[in-house]
Amino acid sequence: MEVVFKEGMLYLKGNKFGKKTWKKIWMVLYPPSVFGIGRVEFYDILDGGHTSTGSKSKSAQSRKIVQLCDCLSVTLVPDESYPPALPNDDCRAFDLNTTQRRYILASENYHDWVGALCQLAFQKESGHTERGEKERGGGVGIPMEENELYATWKTGT
Fold this sequence. Notes:
Elements: E1 6-16, E2 19-30, E3 39-44, E4 63-67, E5 71-76, E6 92-98, E7 102-107, H1 110-122, E8 129-130, H2 131-135
Antiparallel strand pairs: 1-2, 1-7, 2-3, 3-4, 5-6, 5-8, 6-7
């Protein structure tokens, strides 16, 4: 049985006829396990506050799946118009950039979502994280060492 790492209501930014809109979604974050791949699932929230999943019957039409292995970066969005329906100023937008698409999401507890996504997608606790940073040997990860195959090129020797 799959274990849910985090779930909750967020806003997904979209464009409808050239107009920027925010849509309420229910987002579920699954860690990688023997039962399935690490992924994020988005469900539409119908009027009245109910998710389109109903009573655990998941409709493929209203569900979007993003594999965590496709995540490139998770960052806070500095200048973004926020959903007007949010009651407090603590709501912030963040960017989930994948190999297929860029998702701009907003939530009151954005810090928890960014931390959870970074933890599962990049094995980091929080903050701005990019996959290329690990590949270049920067950030937290396995340090690059000198060896016979991949040695630093020195001039003048």
